[in-house]
Write a structure and sequence with these properties.
- The protein has 256 residues and is mainly α.
- The chain has two domains: 216 residues, Rhomboid-like fold (Up-down Bundle), CATH 1.20.1540.10; 33 residues.
- It is built from ten helices and three strands.
- Strands 1-2-3 form a three-stranded antiparallel beta sheet.
- The longest helix has 28 residues.
- The N and C termini lie far apart (62 Å).
Length: 256
């Protein structure tokens, strides 16, 4: 996947291509993946077990209250290959950089972890239904990444995206397609990919962004400001009445 404001006019490495939050996430995810990989090939069983304790396992979260797994699983990727982390980090950079530049690092990280943890909560809930398995193990930042894709599609709907680096389409249609793929995949056979996490990240991202839009369009009621406005209106009306009385006494013209 790749994107540009006008098809192919954006340079490959624009100025500020790696804003601080995206850069921090890239370094931390790649660094942890590399440590996990070295642990796996070295045969250090105790270190491998420590990494496994950071996986998201619904049974551990609910029955053993290991709530930190809802956060730590976002930094773990399959150490047996490069595809998992490559896709997530490439997508994080391509879509997250513009979002962070528009939002700022703090709001970007808040949204990122909201989507990631929300995706983890969805994984836990679904695996405690008759269709799931509480012992299922989940790793990867895909829930947060799909939340970023949702945000990009909502905030930059007409930006052109290259689906699979080949097919140009508007971001809003791209988000619809990947959402439909994740949904249909979740109904099929188990492929080892947590489509529930993908959908959960998109769902939490959508709800958060919609709530922010409503907050902007309908500002919170401020009683102090309302009283101040009423007081100012009262003073204006009082001055107007005094002026009208003055005009009546002195025969002046009416104004409106």
């Amino acid at each position: 996947m790749a994107y540009s404001d006008r098809y192919y006019t954006r340079s490959f490495l624009p100025s500020g291509a790696f804003p601080p939050a995206v850069r921090w996430l890239l370094i931390s995810n790649v660094g942890i993946w590399l440590l996990y990989f070295l642990t796996l090939i070295s045969g250090a069983s105790s270190a491998a077990k420590w990494f496994q304790s950071l996986w998201l396992v619904p049974q551990d979260v609910v029955e053993r209250f290991q709530l930190w797994q809802l956060f730590t699983y976002l930094f773990l990727h399959d150490p047996r290959g490069f595809g998992h982390i490559l896709f997530n980090m490439l997508t994080l950079w391509m879509f997250g950089a513009d979002l962070e530049r528009g939002w700022g690092a703090r709001r970007f990280l808040k949204y990122y972890f909201l989507c990631g943890i929300g995706a983890g909560i969805c994984v836990v809930i679904v695996n405690y239904t008759p269709f799931g398995d509480p012992a299922t193990r989940t790793i990867g930042a895909s829930g947060a990444i799909y939340g970023l894709l949702m945000a990009f599609g909502m905030l930059y709907p007409d930006t052109t995206v290259l689906f699979s680096f080949l097919f140009p389409m508007k971001a809003k249609y791209f988000v619809m397609i990947i959402g439909a793929i994740a949904f249909l995949s979740s109904l099929g056979a188990n492929t080892g990919v947590s489509n529930v996490a993908h959908l959960g990240g998109m769902l939490f991202g959508y709800v958060y962004l919609k709530s922010q839009q409503r907050r902007v369009s309908q500002p919170r009621f401020n009683p102090v400001a309302a009283l101040r406005r009423e007081y100012q209106n009262w003073r204006v009306q009082r001055a107007k009445k005094k002026f009208e009385v003055y005009l009546r006494k002195h025969g002046g013209p009416w104004v409106n």
